[in-house]
Every structure is written in structure tokens, then in C-alpha cells.
Amino acid sequence: MKIQGLSANMELCLRTILCLSQTKNVVRVKDISDSLNVKMPSVTAVLNSLKNKGMVVHESYGNIELTRIGEKHARNSMRTLFLKNKFLRGMLGVSGFCIESDIKNLEFCLSPETFERLLDFVEFSDICLTGKCAFSEKNLSEYMRLKRMNAEKGAAESEKISETDSAV
User: Fold this and answer.
1) 129-156 tens-digit pLDDT
2) Cα–Cα distance for residue pair 49/6, rounded to 1 Å
3) Single residue among 67, 95, 114 that ends a domain in this structure
4) Close Cβ partners of 72 (under 8 Å, ≥ 6 residues apart)
5) Same domain (yes/no): 49, 92
6) Residues 129 and 60 occupy one common structural domain
7) Which residues contact 9 (CB under 8 A, 6 or more apart)?
8) Domain range enclosing 36
């Protein structure tokens, strides 16, 4: 799902920070710049926007860390990208020059609810393909019901985290 108020560049930066932090002890502007093949001032501009949204902790010339909310959004963005890729490339067999554009634009062609349900369907299909459950309308309905319940629970938890972070 598209995170409201975050540009594609912000999401890319969050994902990059998450990936780099898993392989490096410290993440710096130069690391992101090198990884994305962009100039350091461009990275700094995006980081300032993310900092203003409470997604990263970063002081000038210092290390970069994701906040709890930033990490959650980065992980959600990674999941979305992975599932779009899996759906278009793996399940539909789409390839060629337009695939990258399709992956980037898929969620903008659908309502947020429909897009989220599509991602859930791709996850469910993947579970069935691994043999963990039978693909049936009943199992799909139950899976979707549980996903919605977990999403509602997660939204309430995110609200608590936001309140805690803003109180600090």
C-alpha cells in the first residue's frame, strides 16, 4: 500500500537504509548515494524530508538510523515491492521493457483497498503453491479475514507508537 505523504524517492531511501543497515554497522549519506548512484545533496534532501516526518534520525554529517515508524514503513515498502514483482513476473509471466514501469505504477491504477487485497491474494497464492494449504475460496476468504483483523490490530499499535514517539 502506498504510504500517504511519502514520495517514491522517500520509499526508495527508506528501503535502501533498511538494506544497508543489515550489512553495515553504520549508514551514512555516502553509502546511500553510492548504492542508488545519485548525488549526496539529493540524498540529503530526501533525508531531511524523512526526518521531518519522523522516519529517520540524522544529524548533519552523522549516521542515519530508521525510527520505529521508519523501519515499519521500509519493511512495508519492501513487502509491497516484492509482491508486485512476484505477481507480475512470477504469476503473470510479464517481462520486457515495460515491467519496471508496471511494477512502479501498479498500485496507482487501483484503489488502496483493491491494491492491498491483491497483495494479500499474491501472498495467499504463494502459501498455497508451497503446499501449506489448499487453494480454495473458503481458505482465501478466511486468509483475507485474518489479514484484515491483523491490519486493524497493527493500525491501533501504530497509533500507540506514534503517540509514544511524539510524547518523547
Assistant:
1) 888 888 888 888 888 888 888 877 776 6
2) 9
3) 67
4) 158, 161
5) no
6) no
7) 46
8) 8-67
Residue 116 to residue 155: CA distance in whole angstroms: 14
Q: What length does the chain have?
A: 168
Between CA 158 and CA 150 the distance in angstroms is 12
In terms of Cβ atoms closer than 10 Å to its own Cβ (0-12, 13-18, 19+), residue 4 is exposed
Taking the C-alpha atoms of residue 81 and residue 100, their distance in angstroms, rounded to an integer, is 11
Residue 52 in domain: yes
CB atoms within 10 A of CB 53: 16
Bigger pLDDT: 123 vs 13:
13
**113 and 44 within one domain:** no
pTM for this model (two decimals) = 0.73
36 Cβ contact partners less than 8 Å away, ≥ 6 residues apart: 12, 13, 16, 43
* Residue 56: φ, ψ to 5°: -135, 160
Q: Which three cell numbers stand for residue 14?
A: 527508506
